[in-house]
Specification:
alpha+beta; OB fold (Dihydrolipoamide Acetyltransferase, E2P); Dihydrolipoamide Transferase; Chloramphenicol Acetyltransferase; 3 domains; seven-stranded mixed beta sheet; four-stranded antiparallel beta sheet; 7 helices; 19 strands
Length: about 425
Amino acid sequence: MGRFVFKLPDLGEGTAEAEIVAWHVKVGDVVAEDAPLVDMLTDKATVEMTSPVAGKLVEVNGAAGDMAAVGSAIAVFEVEGAGNAAAAPAAAAPPPPAAHAPVPDVSETAEPAAPPPPPPTMAPPAPKAPAREPPAARAFPARAEGEKPLASPAVRRRAEDLGIKLGHVAGTGPAGRITHEDLDGFIASGGRAAAPGSSGLARRTAVEEVKVIGMRRAIARQMQESKRRIPHFAYVEEIDMTELEALRVHLNATKRADQPKLTLLPFLMRALVRVLPDYPQINARFDDEAGVVHRHAGVHVGIATQTANGLIVPVVRHAESLDVWAAAAEVARVAEIARSGKGSKEELSGSTITITSLGPLGGVVTTPVINHPEVAIIGPNKIVDRPVVRDGQIAVRKMMNLSSSFDHRVVDGYDAAEFIQRVKAMLEHPATLFMD
């Protein structure tokens, strides 16, 4: 039998380390070759690692949430044959004592050792005084259900000032009346005063510790990096979505069975791909360490998707080549792979601009965080019926706020505002989305 050490391979894209998400096996299991072994999380995706050999798992290095460097040993197997790990060298035995080493005779030359002095006499410890037991708290009075305790107005005011509920105080006066002495005795015997304004409801004092690991830790790092490195410029505009909503409802009512349901996102993507060629600095990625802005001709739209593991951004590539039906189908496809956790690195990276939508939650205004190293993010909010003035008359229209954030190092405020105004004009006049 031999030992096989499995080292974390290079996962690509310059990854130096990865996080252990979950082990599919435990020490002592007999594992088949190519069987699922462990899930590893990089900055972009969760990668399932399979067993490189068949054998018995005898050691794992790291638990869920631990980081492992590329090239480090993360598992050891006991396998048939020699394996790939040399046997550990046996510990060297200590050298035997010399056979004829002379033993010095000190009986005639050394002075006899003086006997050690007797230990100092310690005084016996003084007996401890018995601890004083706290006075026993008085029992609550035995009153009938709903019976009001008897007390004078002065006693009631004092009890209220002390935060004491008279229902908890035994009365020794005539007919069980509570006196000032009863209050003094209640406090002295350990009775607890109620906190001012207390409702009598139980307080919740439990504190749960939740370790930030896995995808949540990756999201936290990404958001922290974005806010630390990017000076955000936020811009919000109100858009009349009445005509576009009417078109969307009509298209969904008349679509073929094999066509996907249309949401707002395909129309917003269509507006972006029509306007972005005039603002190439917005459809870009900024390598701030190298000081280089990479402007892209193709529009690769990140779709911020809420999953059980947190917010993940799969990518719709070359949105400029898709009509609204194809865009809707692609949005649904990438959102599903993100939720299932099966997205590849290519499907979860490389976006040039991101859309983040809270859907029906929407809100009034958001300030979305840019998906570093991109330079812009667009966030549609909820569409609501609101009264607006049109041609001097009040009319109810379907209105939506469009929130956006830009990297102010790359995008000037004027250009950002002008860009959003162009997008607004297209959404308010949806026919222009389809005109050359």
